[in-house]
Structure formats: structure tokens, C-alpha cells
Design a protein that fits this description.
The protein is an alpha/beta fold. It has two domains: about 90 residues, Rossmann fold, CATH 3.40.50; about 110 residues, UDP N-Acetylglucosamine Acyltransferase, domain 1 (3 Solenoid), CATH 2.160.10.10. The protein has an eight-stranded mixed beta sheet, with helices on one face. Strand 23 and strand 24 form a beta hairpin. The protein is globular. Bound molecules: coenzyme A. Coenzyme A (COA) binds next to strand 23 and strand 24. The site of coenzyme A has 12 residues, from strand 23 and strand 24.
């Protein structure tokens, strides 16, 4: 029998954050991609892909898609949209680049994006709605909680915990067994030698608090 399989259909909600990267990783994983964004109908294309409707449309017609991915910049907004779409019974997926190396003993939650050349080690848990960017290494038995964003080229040593909504900027390094609180921003190139409380911005080497929220 001759048969051309139909591509799996993926809807991406939002054109923020790493939406273009998510779309190209989805294609590498065999999905046919389109976007939904509140800029529709003024904007009908994003990068190489069509925008088919706004957020309400994906909530109403999500059953037409095999999978849905949420690409909103703000962690709390990402969480709200992701939970709403899950509650509607749609299939929210994580997207993992084929060039990422994720241990078979690691766990990745739903709605997370693991970009090219990321390493995730033995026993590490990545939560829901996380973004782990190019070339980041997360070694063994770490816990990266929900809606964390880790930028490019970050090194996370073993048994580190990163609290929810935190953002670790480009080139930062976190040494072993450090606990980073919730909603922490660790600036570009920061070196986290000690645990960091929630709701602060830290920069430098060794990382020091420069802002409290
Ligand atoms: C930390 C960061 C987010 C800025 O946060 P902010 O709340 O706007 O902080 P400010 O710019 O007001 O800076 C506060 C102080 O920290 C210093 N600072 C900011 N970022 C710093 C860094 N990465 N390293 C060292 N010092 C830094 C500032 O010079 C300033 O010092 P001062 O008070 O002595 O003048 C930003 O500097 C940063 O590191 N961005 C990287 C973003 C990134 O990773 N991009 C790639 C992802 S796609």
C-alpha cells in the first residue's frame, strides 16, 4: 500500500519569547506548525508560519490540533494560558531539539522548550513551561521548577534547585547544591556560589543582591 502520512498539527499560542525557535524545533520533530496570537487579523504570518487566529480561537478550536505549545514571555501569563488549555482537555506538549541530550533518567514537564545543544543530566527534573536555551548544561539531580527561563550558555552544577518563575541570564554559572529562590533574576555572567533568597536580582562574581522586589 502506498501511503503518505499526514503531518501532526501543532498550534503555538503566542509569538513572544522563543516562538520562532519553538516553531523550528517543532518542525524538526515532524509537526506542521501554525500560530495563534492576539495580533491576528492585523498580522497573518510570523516568520515562516501562518497565524490562524487569536488566543480565543485556539481555546475554541484546539481540538483541531494534535498538540499545543504556549510561547508567552511572562512566566505567570505562560502558566495561566497553559493551565487553561490543559483544562480544556487539549494536548500541551514540550518541544525538545533533536540536538539536545536529555538523560533517559531526567523528567521534563509539559509545555517546556529545550533548545539545541542543551544537556540535561541523570535524575534532573525540569518543570512545566520552562525555557532552557541554547548550549545550557544542567548536570545531574537538579530541580528546575515550573516557568523558569534559563538563557544561553548557562552552567548548572549537580543538585542545584531553581525556584519557579526565576530567570537565569546568559552565561551564568551556578555551583553545586545551591538553591535559587522563586522569581530570582540572575544577571548575565553571574556566578552563584551561595543560595539565593526569593524575589531578588543578583549580579556579578560572586553573585550579590542588587535589587529586592
Ligand atoms: C540583570 C539584568 C536583567 C538587568 O536587571 P535590572 O533590574 O534592569 O538591573 P539594572 O540594569 O538596573 O542594574 C542594577 C545594577 O546591576 C548592575 N548589573 C546589571 N546587570 C549586570 C550584570 N550582568 N553583571 C554585573 N553587573 C550588572 C548594573 O550595572 C547596576 O549597577 P549599579 O547599581 O552599580 O549602577 C541585565 O543586566 C542582564 O544581565 N541581562 C541579561 C539578559 C539575557 O540573558 N539576555 C539573553 C537572553 S535571550
Amino acid at each position: 500500500m502506498n501511503f503518505i502520512p499526514t503531518a501532526k498539527r501543532l498550534a503555538i499560542l503566542g509569538t513572544q519569547a522563543h516562538a520562532l525557535v519553538a516553531a523550528s524545533i517543532a518542525e524538526q520533530n515532524g509537526y506542521e506548525v501554525c500560530f495563534f496570537d492576539d495580533n491576528f487579523p492585523q498580522q497573518k504570518h510570523f516568520g515562516a508560519w501562518p497565524i490562524r487566529g487569536n488566543q480565543q480561537a485556539v481555546e475554541a478550536f484546539g481540538y483541531n490540533y494534535d498538540a499545543i505549545f504556549v510561547s508567552l514571555e511572562n512566566g505567570q501569563e505562560r502558566q495561566a494560558a497553559l493551565q487553561k488549555i490543559k483544562a480544556l482537555g487539549y494536548n500541551v506538549v514540550s518541544l525538545i531539539s533533536p540536538s539536545a541530550k536529555v538523560s533517559e533518567y531526567a523528567k521534563i514537564g509539559v509545555g517546556s522548550l529545550i533548545v539545541a545543544k542543551v544537556y540535561v543530566g541523570y535524575g534532573t527534573k525540569i518543570g512545566d513551561g520552562c525555557i532552557i536555551n541554547v548550549g545550557t548544561n544542567i548536570d545531574f539531580e537538579c530541580t528546575v521548577n515550573d516557568y523558569v527561563t534559563i538563557a544561553q550558555g548557562v552552567n548548572v552544577a549537580p543538585r542545584v534547585t531553581i525556584g519557579q518563575y526565576s530567570s537565569i541570564c546568559i552565561g551564568a554559572n551556578i555551583i553545586e547544591e545551591v538553591t535559587v529562590g522563586d522569581s530570582v533574576i540572575a544577571g548575565a555572567g553571574a556566578v552563584l556560589l551561595n543560595s539565593i533568597p526569593s524575589d531578588v536580582t543578583v549580579v556579578g562574581c560572586p553573585a550579590r543582591i542588587v535589587k529586592k522586589r
